[in-house]
Amino acid sequence: MRFWCWAAATLGIVSGGLHWKPQPSQSLHSSLTRIVISGHFNGSLEPCGCTSPMIGGIRRLATLIDQEREQGSTLVLLTPGSVPSASNASSIGLQQNVMKAEAVAEFAQELRCDVLGVGPDEASYGQGLVSEISQLSGNKALNGVQASPSQVISTSAASHFLIGCCSPPPQMQSNSQVASSGDDPAITAFAAKAKENGEAAILITTASKTSAERLAQLHPSLSLIIYQSLGTATQSPEVVGKTWLVSPGDLGREALVVTYSNNGPVLLKPVPLGPDFANAKKGTEVMDDYLHQVDQAQLLKLWPRSKTIHYVGSKACLSCHRADFNRWHSSAHSHAYLDLLKQGHGLDPDCVKCHVTGLSSTCGFLSQSKTPQLANVTCESCHGPGGAHILNPKWAKMNLGTKVCVTCHTQENSPNFNFATYWLKIKHH
Ligand code: HEC
Ligand code: HEC
Ligand code: HEC
Ligand code: HEC
User: Fold this and answer.
1) Strands (DSSP E) along 262-416, which ranges?
2) Which domains are assigned to the chain?
3) Is 379 in the pocket of ligand 1 (CB under 6 A)?
4) pLDDT digit string (tens) for 313-364?
5) What atom in ligand 1 is closest to the CA of residue 401?
6) Are 66 and 107 in contact (CB under 8 A)?
7) Are the C-beta atoms of residues 65 and 106 closer than 8 Å to each other?
8) Ligand 2 centroid to 134 CA: how many Å?
9) For the CA atoms of 136, 139, 141, 146, what is the dihedral angle to 10 degrees?
C-alpha cells in the first residue's frame, strides 16, 4: 500500500489515468508560488478580433488561469485599465465600456481572481461603476485611483503577499518632476507594513516604466512593481536593487506568470494568449453574457449617420459587371458579416463598421433582416453608394481609388496588409 501511494505520487496517477507530467520535486514545488498577471484590456475583451492568429481575450485568459492552477499554488492579479477613459469615448462607447468593465468584474468573480485593480480609467465613468465593479467582482476590487495604495493580504499555500494598487504619486505624475526626490509616505508605510509581517510587497500601479523605476529606487523593499505600458509584455524583468519591474503590455494580448520563491521573484514568463489556448468555459460564459447585453442594448441604433444617395447592394451591379461580381462573390469580403455573426458579434459596434456597407450613412446597413443586401463588405464599401450610377452609368460616376482599403485594413485589424499582395487576391479589372 505504501509503495503504491509512493508510486502513484511519483508517476502522477490521478483517478485511474496515467499522467507522465514532469513535476518539480515536491519540496521545491511547495515553496514556489506562481502569480498570473493580466489586464490593461483597454476595452479589448476579444482583442484584434481580426488578426490571424488572434492574440488575447478573456476566454483564453481563463484557460491560462485554469492551467496555472493545475500546476500548484497560484495567485491571479488583474491590473487596472479594463476600459479606456470615458473622456475618449463616444456615446455608444460610454455605454459599451460600462458593460465591458462589468464583464471584467464578473470574470474576476467567476475565475476566483485574487485582485482586480481599478484605476483612474474605470473611475472616469463615475463612483457608481467603481462600486458596481467592487460588488460584481466579489469584493476583489482594489481601488488604485489614489496615490496611496489600497491593499490586501493574499496567501498562497507557499507565501504571504501584501498587494497594493495605486496611481503614481503626484510628484511623479508629470515627467518634468520625475526627478524630484520627494519620497511618498503612503508607499513607505505600505512597504514597511509588509516587511514587518514578513510578507512580500507587490505594488500594482498605473504608473509608467520611468515612474516605476523611481518607485523602486525610493522603496527598495518592494519585491515586485507591476506598471502600465503599451505594446508587448516585459520579456525579461528589469531589476532595480532587488525589485522586479514588469508590465503585461496592453490590450490583454499577453499575461505574465511570475514564479516566487520564499525570497522573492525568481522567474518571469510572458505568455501570449494565442490559438493554442482553448476558450475555457467560464471565460466563454462571461463573454457570451456580455455580448448578449450588447445585443439587448441595440447600440448600433445610436450609430451617428449622415445623408448620402442610396446604397443598392452588389446584386444591382451584376447585370452590367458580371465578371467583377463573380470575383467579389468568391472573395472574403462577400462573407465578412457572416463571419462576425458566427462569432456572436453581429450587433457589436466595435466590429460591425468594417464588416458591412455604409454604416455611417442614413441609407446604409441597418441590420441583417432590414438590409441584407448591405451586410458584408460589398462593391459599395469601396466604390461608394451606387443609387445614381445604376440608373445612369455614363453620368453618375462611381468612386475609384485604392486608398479606401486602409480605412478598414488598419494596423490593428490587418497587421499584414500590403496593397500589392492584397489587391492581387481581389483584383477585378
Ligand atoms: C475591397 C474594395 C472593392 C470592392 C469590394 C469592389 N471593388 Fe471594384 N475596384 C476596387 C479598386 C481598388 C479598383 C481599381 C481602382 C484603380 O485601379 O484605381 C476597382 C475597379 C473596379 C472596376 C473597374 C474600373 C475601371 O474602369 O478601371 C469596376 C467596374 C469595379 N471595380 C466594379 C466593382 C463591382 C461591380 C464590385 C462588386 C461586385 C466591386 N467592384 C467590388 C475596389 C473594390
Ligand atoms: C477597423 C476595421 C475592423 C474592425 C473594427 C473589426 N474588423 Fe474584423 N476584420 C477587418 C479586416 C480588415 C479583416 C481582414 C484582415 C486580414 O485578413 O488582413 C478582418 C477580419 C476578421 C475576421 C476573419 C479572420 C480570419 O482570418 O478568418 C473575423 C472573424 C473578424 N474580423 C472579426 C472581428 C470582430 C469580432 C471584431 C470586433 C471585436 C472586428 N472584426 C472588428 C477589419 C475590422
Ligand atoms: C446598367 C448597367 C450598370 C450597372 C447596373 C452598374 N454599372 Fe458600373 N458601369 C457601367 C458602365 C457602362 C460603366 C462605364 C462608364 C463609362 O465608361 O463612362 C460603369 C463604370 C463603373 C465603374 C468605373 C468608374 C465609373 O463610374 O466610370 C465602377 C467602379 C462601377 N461601374 C461600379 C459599379 C457598381 C459598384 C455597381 C453596382 C452598385 C454598378 N457599377 C452598376 C454600367 C453599370
Ligand atoms: C469596409 C471595410 C473594408 C474595406 C474598405 C476593404 N476591406 Fe478587405 N477586408 C475587410 C474585412 C472585414 C475582411 C475580412 C472578411 C472575412 O474574412 O470575414 C477583409 C478581407 C480582405 C482580404 C482577404 C484576406 C485573406 O487573406 O483572405 C483581402 C485580400 C482584402 N480584404 C483586400 C482589400 C483591399 C485590397 C482593399 C482595398 C482595395 C480592401 N480589402 C478594402 C474589410 C474591408
Assistant:
1) 264-272
2) 25-170+183-290 (3.60.21.10), 306-426 (1.10.1130.10)
3) yes
4) 999 999 999 999 999 999 999 999 999 999 899 999 999 999 999 999 999 9
5) 18
6) no
7) no
8) 33
9) 120
Q: Which ligand neighbours the alpha carbon of 49 most closely?
A: 2
Q: Is 325 in the pocket of ligand 1 (CB under 6 A)?
A: yes
Ligand with minimal distance to 379 CA: 1
Check residue 199 and give left, alpha or beta (phi > 0: left; psi -120 to 50: alpha). Answer: beta
Q: Is 382 in the pocket of ligand 1 (CB under 6 A)?
A: yes
Q: Say which amino acid occupies 393.
A: P
pLDDT in tens, 262-321: 889 999 999 999 888 888 888 999 999 999 999 999 999 999 999 999 999 999 999 999
Who's near 44: CB < 8 A, 6+ residues apart? 56, 57, 251, 252, 253
Ligand 2 centre to CA of 352 (Å) is: 9
Going by alpha carbons, the residue nearest to atom 22 of ligand 4 is 332
